[in-house]
Model the fold of this input.
Amino acid sequence: MDYTISNRMSALRGSAIREIFKYAADPAVISLAGGNPNPELFPNEALSDIAAEILREQPVTALQYGITEGYMPLRQAIRERLARVENIGTENDDLIVVSGGQQGIELATKCLVNEGDTVIVELPSFIGATNAFRSYGAHLVGVPVQNDGMDLDALERALAENNNVRFIYTIPTFQNPMGVTMSIEKRKKLYEIAKKNGVLILEDNPYGELTFNGVKTPTIKSMDTDGIVMYSGSFSKILAPGLRLGFMCAPRPIIQKMVIAKQVSDVHTPMLPQLLATEYMKRYDLDALILKMRENYAHKCKTMLDAMEQYFPSDVIYTRPGGGLFIWCDLGHGLDTFALSKKAIEQKVVYVPGNTFMVDMDQPTSTLRLNYSTMSDEKIVEGIRRLGVVFGEALK
Done:
């Protein structure tokens, strides 16, 4: 029997984050990896009541096939929220409900990228997106991320030096993995650079609602008067990730092709989660739930930063995010955080090595990503203390 794997999949690696979850399953291990929302914030009781009522009163709608574009009342609710909260949506845009933001990224890639085409990504960047691009044979070009977002001089060089650039992928707000936010000035300039070069932008914004101080930077999509921005959003970080609900707002011709691509993938997003989200937004205050999340994550982030200040060696550099779920660290001194992660595991604490988020995942890096959203305050402090010991030994 020939079990030869296709070219498009043979070079792909599984997510290191998912591998780390195997260690994190040990209750003695403190996981500062992953990117899960805090399960204590899930609206369990409300969703339970809504689900029982839906299955009792709307069983056919919930359990029958639906249309590929998504449940119409949910699409309308998303459109209204995007317009109110993000100033997104024009008469030339359309919207599709997808099975998590990850599927939106994958479907957009499927529709737009031919093998050998270039996709420009932030460096570092979200592995779920970069693996989606790799799976369609894209040539990935990384552009360094600075404290205020993508290095736009490097972006212009990348556009000049590479052919067939299909789109620029960016997480401009509370970027995964760095936690930094692109300035409004850079967002405007990025838009103009893409417009000048005839290149699309894929704006991924799963964390934008999780701003600690309530102040939001305008999305790039809100500036889109030329139909060049695809906007990926998600309910995973503001409601519950297990619902697997995301959406893509993009120029209508792209959405029309994504609908066909989704029909091939999974026909439609499951109906019960779509009804749950729709009814939750009708009956409850989603903004109030998001406010609780902001307050919780702001507290946890400060707890971690304070512990890092106390326990980390003084020459370790790290970001201080204003929202989202992640802190990015650089140990410097030529250290390899992938190799060092084994020492951390011995101390029963895990993080995500920085090579996971790079275009060249084989290149050693002194960086790593920490997550603060799921652990208790006590475990955050103890985990950072343990890492401080590991890092201190490595930097001697």
In short: The chain has a mean pLDDT of 95. The chain has two domains: 7-43+288-394, 60-283.
